[in-house]
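Sample pair:
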Amino acid sequence: MPETSTKICSVNPATFESLADVTVSTSADIKRAVERARQGQPAWQKLGVKGRLKELQKLYSYLTERREQYAQLETKEMGKPIQGSRSSFDWAMRQFRWNLDNAIQCLAPEISYEDDKEIHQIHYEPYGVAGVITPWNFPLSNFVMGALQPLIAGNAVVYKISEEVPLFGQALDKAWREAQLPQGVFNQVYGAGDVGELLARSDIDFLHFTGSSVVGKKLYVIAAEKFIPVTLELGGSDAGIVFEDADVDRMIQPIFWAKFINAGQICCGLKRLYVHKTRYDEVVAKLSKFISQQKLGNPCEEDTVVGPLVSEKQRERLIGQVEDARSKGVKVVLGGKVPSGAKGAYFEPTLLAGVNKDMRAYYEELFGPVLPVAAFDSEAEAIQLANDTPYGLSAYVYTNDAERFKRVADQLEAGSISHNGTDYSRPANPFGGYKGSGIGKTCGKIGLQHACRVKVTAQQKRK
């Protein structure tokens, strides 16, 4: 990468207006950031969990007091409808609050064995310096999921946010500084994938990456060469299954939000919908009607439900996937095109019928407002179709039969399973996928412990 500074331009995807330029970090900048983290980490660790939580409470308070400011920035820089940006902020802060309230208990030494002569304990210690790389789709949530738990565990962090939302990264820098947290503990570098790769190759002890499976696999190779642990929260092609006994009228709205939240730009969103053949026409008709009633437009307007994609590049990829399917015989039930007169990176909410294995829309992740719908005959076929993917992040099952849900969930190859739209993303729950959707977990007790080295002490009792 260049040794002289270059710029990246933050762009409003709703208008393609240039917002501001941010300086890209050079290799020397990255090295200095890691060195600062290395210098700041011992004192941070020495504070203990309780002391670190006291410091991070200041950041929590700072952010909470500026909810609308951060929501507006998220909407302006990545195009999320303002109501969604507020909801995303609230979700992130619930995660933050849970960690502040529960980390002491989660990271406390655990007695694994004890008798009258000895006591054995499990201790959770920081790795040292963590490199954390996150995407653009939920800027604050991704910071909380990626960086907060390593910080609580006692690691110093060098953080790289996506080049699509560098202004949000600067806002996080400002928050850390103005909340008066210790210097050197949280450090940021800016830029695209080359900056992230250089960070992964630098003198770090642990790597967290949230993003595509393609990039995640490349970073995993780098981490393996360095022999450092990783958490990889990668892509998904999550299936939804609507069985014949489902309450379709009640399920249409949860299905819509599972797919079209954030214009479909969510790793754990519903990306393939399989419907029992006896309910297929009903589901397609009712879902199409519901989708057509939702406003696509300016994300700054309070009643907008679906906004633009994050960039023209993201839209072009989605157009390519839809056109590939169209050329191979797919039926476009709804949408399927750029809305007329659109000035930003908009794409109409779309339903596709007849997607098959020859189409990119079948085997690639659809990261946008496009949902393939297909019919199935039997429970066994539905499970086979849902599992027919290299991904395994989450899945959605719609049935009024509790035993069927348990039976199907046991067979689905995914890290989180939702029943009738129940939200699995509670703060206490770990999050992470099977297969190509990642390695390790974030969130909850398991996420906190995954950000730690585990030490066992076997201590003799005094006689």
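The chain has a mean pLDDT of 97.
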